[in-house]
Amino acid sequence: MITNFYCDESCYMEHDDNNLMFLSMISCPRNEYIKTKNEIKQIFLKHSIPEHFEVKSTKVSMGKYDFYKDLIHIFMYNKNLRFRCIIADKTQLEHKKYSQTHEEWYYKMYYLLIEKAKLSDENKVYVDYKDNHSYDCCKIVEEYLNNHFRKKQKKFCIQPMDSKESRLMQINDLLMGLVAYRNKDLTANKAKLYLAGELEEYFKIDF
Predict the structure, then answer these.
(1) Residue 175: which of 153, 199, 159 has the closest Cα?
(2) In terms of C-beta distances under 8 Å and separation of at least 24 residues, what long-range contacts does 32-39 make, across chains too?
(3) Measured between alpha carbons, how far is 166 from 55 in angstroms, rounded to an integer?
(4) Cα distance between residue 1 and residue 9, in whole Å
(5) SS3 46
(6) Residue 6: enclosing H or E segment and its boundaries?
(7) Where would a tag sit more exposed on the chain, N or C end, judged by fewer CB atoms within 10 A?
(8) What are phi and psi of 2, to 5 degrees?
(9) Residue 19 contacts residue 91 (beta carbons within 8 Å)
(10) What is the 3-state secondary structure (H, E, C) of 133-166?
(11) What is the pLDDT of residues 60-84, one digit of tens each?
(12) Neighbour-count burial of 145, counting CB atoms closer than 10 A to its CB (0-12 exposed, 13-18 middle, 19+ buried)
């Protein structure tokens, strides 16, 4: 069996206006992908959302609250989907102490993201495409993961993907955005707060 992983990060740059970095993934067995994709399609039809509409956490609003609520319910009630998010406080990083660059630390974060996932012998990891540098980055992360999981006989193939091409990549963006919103202690977007509350109540967790 092959497992698909859809990954993305937010506020990754070492020096920007955000202290917190978020790195997340949603996984799905490849043989369940079409079924899940069709479930998402039915949500689009139910709410009369155009097929070309891209789901993003930045688009969440009360006007489309029921639509986004149904989308997170797909994740909540589908046992084949697994989500994980790592939050790093960049103000606490000590790259010199650990003889690493910010890029090298970033690759280590991918290992931490993946290590506790339910891995198959073969794993296909899709990373949200940013720019032409994405291809080089994927190859480095791929080599890094394959080296670290070689003894467990787990293989990884990593490639960039435009989020417009994948509904699960978009669902990952939505979930990561909700986690980020709560951890940044923002309150203006009530729809995001309500959706995050749905997840917290269902899974008995506190973002």
Answers:
(1) 199
(2) 32/80, 33/4, 33/168, 36/74, 36/78, 36/80, 36/81, 36/168, 37/167, 37/168, 39/74, 39/78
(3) 10
(4) 26
(5) helix
(6) strand 2-10
(7) N
(8) -110, 135
(9) yes
(10) HHHHHHHHHHHHHHHHCHHHCCEEEEEEECHHHC
(11) 999 999 999 999 999 999 999 999 9
(12) buried
* Identity of the amino acid at 54: E
The H or E element that residue 185 is part of is none
- In DSSP terms, 89 is beta-bridged to 20
Amino acid at 62: M
> What's the rounded Cα separation, in Å, for the pair 44 and 67?
8
Per-residue CA distances from 170 to 6, 127, 163 (Å): 9, 11, 6
Tokens 């978020």 — which residue? Answer: 22
Q: Is the pTM for the entire model greater than 0.85?
A: yes
Q: Which amino acid is at 178?
A: L
